[in-house]
Amino acid sequence: MLISNYSSFILETGTDEAGRGCLAGPVTAAAVILPKNFKNKLLNDSKQLNKKQRESLRPIIESQAITWAFHHINEEEIDDINILNASIKAMQESILKLNPKPEFIIVDGNRFKPLKDIPHKTIIKGDSKYLSIAAASVLAKSYRDDYMAKIHEEYPMYNWIKNKGYPTKEHREAIRKYGSCKYHRKSFRLLPEQLKLKL
Fold first, then answer.
1. What is the pLDDT of residues 121-152, one digit of tens each?
2. Which residues contact 181 (CB under 8 A, 6 or more apart)?
3. Does the domain formed by 12-145 have CATH 3.30.420.10?
4. Which of 31, 43, 81, 168 has CB 3.0 to 4.6 Å from 85, enough for a Cys bridge?
5. Sheet holding 27-33, edge to edge
6. For the chain, what are the domain ranges?
7. Phi then psi for 15, rounded to 5 degrees?
8. d(CA 91, CA 193)
9. Among 110, 164, 137, 146, which Cα is nearest to 45's?
10. Among 62, 70, 123, 61, which Cα is nearest to 96's?
11. Helix crossing, 51-64 with 131-152: angle to 10°?
12. pLDDT, tens digit, for every residue of 38-90?
């Protein structure tokens, strides 16, 4: 059973990101402030839900949340500032879009950087403990999936509609065959043996 709030603040936001381990596309974060009385039996960590469940939850979260937002950090910026900093920045940017502004932030994971003067708490596996983090994980995952479906049309050979940019065997085979494209993260090891030279 997921808990509603960590702190005693009414305007507590949960935040989470999706796409951190991908080879292509953005890292996407979302932030959600839910009302204290929000309840939903289906809502859980987005990794525990299938696509249909996430799609059914998204309009419920968006219509019942006090406020919500999401933010993409693209592959160029990921390469520039590294994936950890990009993940934190995506969460911070989504929090900055919230209106009303949160009084407290709960973050999935163990890394975050202070944002303005808003107190925060990092919570390992927070997306399976707190409703607002779980809601943020659902929005981050579904908005990132939408983005990957869109760029799939531009580069269908990588089958991002299915693998979402994750390092699946099929995705790596396509990189081996067609090379990388503008949406690939150049700072990531796209192929396990790409550092070896063929002499």
1. 999 999 999 999 999 999 999 999 999 999 99
2. 24, 155, 158
3. yes
4. 81
5. 67-73, 27-33, 12-18, 104-108, 120-123
6. 12-145
7. -140, 150
8. 33
9. 137
10. 70
11. 120
12. 999 999 877 889 999 999 999 999 999 999 999 999 999 999 999 999 999 99
Place of tokens 């065997």: 169
Instruction: Annotate the chain with three-state secondary structure.
Output: CCECCCCCCCCEEEEEEECCCCCECCEEEEEEECCCCCCCCCCCCHHHCCHHHHHHHHHHHHHHCCEEEEEEECHHHHHHHCHHHHHHHHHHHHHHCCCCCCCEEEEECCCCCCECCECEEEECCHHHCEHHHHHHHHHHHHHHHHHHHHHHCCCHHHCHHHHCCCCCHHHHHHHHHHCCCCCECCCCCCCCCCCCCCC
Residue type, 104: F
